[in-house]
Amino acid sequence: MLAPNSTALILVDVQQAFVQWEAQGLRRNNPDAVSNIAKLLTAFRARGMPVFHIRHASTEADSALRPDRPGFEPIEVAREHPGEAVIVKHVNASFIGTDLEEQLRDGGIKTLVIAGITTNHCVETTTRMGGNLGFDARLVSDAYYTFDRIGFDGAPESAETIHAMTLSNLSGEFATIETTDTVLAALISVAA
Known about the structure:
The protein has a single domain, classed as Isochorismatase-like (Rossmann fold). The chain has six helices and eight strands. It has helices at residues 16-23, 33-46, 100-106, 119-132, 159-170, 180-191, and strands at residues 7-12, 51-56, 85-89, 111-117, 136-145, 149-150, 156-157, 176-178. Helix 2 (33-46) runs parallel beside helix 6 and helix 4 (119-132) runs parallel beside helix 5. The chain is globular and about 45 Å long. It starts with 6 loop residues before the first strand and ends with a helix.
C-alpha cells in the first residue's frame, strides 16, 4: 500500500547527459524507462503527492553533468513543476551533502518510490541509503536504466546483467522491488 500522505516519488538524475551518452553510442537497457518515469510522475502529480527531483552537479572538469553544461538539464518529460523540490547533489548518494532527508522527514514521508538514471550508480546508492535511514524504499525496476560497461577484470558486462545484479543486491535488505504497473495499481487502489 502506498499512503498518499507519506509517500514521495524520488527521481534520481533524469538528466540530458545520459541522452547524450546514448547518442554517442553507449548501449543501455530498459528502453521504456523514461516513458515509465513519465507515467509515475503523472500519477503522483495527479494525486498531489510529493515529487523530489535529484540532479547531479559534477565537480569533475570534463563531466557532461557539470551545472554549466547542457547535460545537467533534466530530460524534458521529467522537468519539475512549480512547487516540486529540486535537490542538487555532488556525489552518488542523494542524501549526502543535501537536505533531502530533512525535507522528507519534515514532510512526514515514510515511503520512497525511486526511479531514475543510472541503476548501479546514483539510483543504487540512493536506494541503499534510503533503506539504511529507515525509509520504506520501493525501487521501480522498469523505470531506471544503466549502460554496458567494462568490468574491473576487463571483461564486458551488459547493462541487463548489471541491472539484474543491482536488483538482486537491493531486494529485501534495502528495498522492495516494484514495477511501474505495481506502483500505478497501488496508487489507483488508494484513490478508490
